[in-house]
Amino acid sequence: MRISTSMIFDQGASAMSRNVSDLLNTQAQLSSGKRVTTPSDDPLASAQAVAVSQAKDMNAQYATNRGAATTALQLEDQTFGSIINTLQHVMSQVVAAGSASLNDNDRSAIATDLQASYQQLLSLANTADANGQYLFSGFMGGSAAYVATPTGASYAGDTGIRYVQVAAGRQIPINDIGSNIFQAIQPATASTVISGSMSNTGTATFTPVSTTDVTNAGANHQFSIGFAIDSTTTPPTTNYTIKDLTDTTVPDVTGVYTSGQPITFAGKSVTFTGDPATGDTYTVAPAGKSSTNVFDNLQALIDTLKTPVSAQGPTGSANLSNALTTFNQLFGNTYDNVTTVRTTVGSRLNELTTLGDIGSANDLAYTSQLQDLLDVDIISATSQFAQQQASLQASQQTFIQTQKLSLFSLL
């Protein structure tokens, strides 16, 4: 076989070009730290890296969303803390207003203090975030949640819950509805509410109602308790009649009243002390059928404390004491509801923390996968670079020696 001079030169140049290309490619890998710089370097690894990168980017977006959700819920939690403090102050003032040593002016001063609590509570209900969005207005974040009325305040938002995608399969609510906070109760724990008419003329006062049998058929019914004095007996006898206002077919419960002795009916028990008058009436109702709007209740309390009762004597004192007992129950139910809702906020914050830990672990896993797919093995690449240098030098030396095979060198 005859080997031409041009063939020798072509093969030598091709070998050196190939070695130089390989050397430069390895050098580029060592410089960038990447084994795959173009899809052609490793098509399979490139395709896998695209999928992993997408997953990593989504994980990063979830982390951003979790940060935003955490900020929103932390603000809500702080607001709940202030709401609870305000309610505690209101309930302490209810107790203080019941002191027998206070006169009408003293109670009016407490009412003035409670007016400030009302304004503070209304301001907290209309708390806005850094973007000016009201926390408790639902989807109507641009409008205040509550609007003051002559009798208290009314909810002006909607029932929308804003969700944020915080993980691949998890959306978390970042707001709570104002009406579920300031106008709701927890049915499982809320106490039954008893109230008396301010027009009662007797001196009887009541204790909060206790539930002795939650399975009783009338557990969630509304009742009226009426008193009447039978003057035909000696001495006169005070009788009570309890009517089921929810189911009027239920027979009335009747009995002779004794001050300080519990009156039981429909799985409930209540104790009156003092002397009721004929026609005095009282209502016993489940918490959900009583007033649950904390603003209306607070305004009603303020109005009650501003109303003079000293001139009414023992009757006025008894009616005031009963009203304060009722208000204490109403605010206690609201307090229980707010603390329960706040607990759910804490649970969501804990979940975000857990999801954040999982997201951080996933990010490390994705980073490791990408390194395995794309990053260069420094030790292997360094060794390969040395081999390619040697190959290039060998091809260069071979080409030089091949040049000497010409017959012209023998002339």
TrEMBL record:
Its main location: other. Belongs to the bacterial flagellin family. This is Flagellin N-terminal domain-containing protein. Keywords: Bacterial flagellum. One of its GO terms (cellular component) is extracellular region. One of its GO terms (biological process) is bacterial-type flagellum-dependent cell motility. The lineage of its organism: Bacteria, Pseudomonadati, Pseudomonadota, Betaproteobacteria, Burkholderiales. It is found in: Bacterial flagellum; Secreted. It comes from Pandoraea faecigallinarum. GO terms for molecular function: structural molecule activity. Gene3D superfamilies: f41 fragment of flagellin, N-terminal domain. InterPro entries: Flagell_FlgL (IPR013384), Flagellin (IPR001492), Flagellin_N (IPR001029). It holds the Pfam family Flagellin_N. NCBIfam families: flagell_flgL. The keyword Translocase does not apply. Residues 3-138 form the Flagellin N-terminal domain. It comes from the Bacteria.
